[in-house]
Write a structure and sequence with these properties.
Blueprint: E1 20-24, H1 30-42, E2 58-62, H2 73-76, E3 79-82, E4 89-92, H3 94-100, H4 103-111, H5 118-124, E5 127-129, E6 143-144
Parallel strand pairs: 1-2, 1-6, 2-5
Antiparallel strand pairs: 3-4
Helix pairs in contact: 1-4
Length: 147
Amino acid sequence: MDTLSYKTISVRKEDVQRDWHIVDAEGLVVGRIATTIATILRGKHKASYTPHIDCGDYVIVINADKVRFTGNKMSAKEYVSYSGYPGGQKRVTPKELLEKKPIAIIEKAVRGMLPKNRLGRKMFKKMFVYTGEEHPHKAQKPKKIEF
């Protein structure tokens, strides 16, 4: 028998190396950028990906107010929320949401692509979304992601 051990190595949370990435969302399609962001937040872009550990990186999104949708989704798509009370269902289009809270569009798209559990909530907290070019994370020296 060979002395080499062929075992899958799982990363421990203490051994995770986190990088910072920056995404300029200007003119990009919401769903396409959200899949890339969700992949980075989960850590699936790394060879050391472990499903039960948060091994993802930090992501900064700038120009979130300049994203676009394909087709006529800007006026036809609806985000539905329900308070639980009679008559408490609210519908909002991306066009209305861009005027009121532009960062919510990217946040909703990415949150929907992450796991719906404690780990997913922890991953989501590593994303920072800003409407303009400026962000307070320059000291982390983020790497730009090209699309």
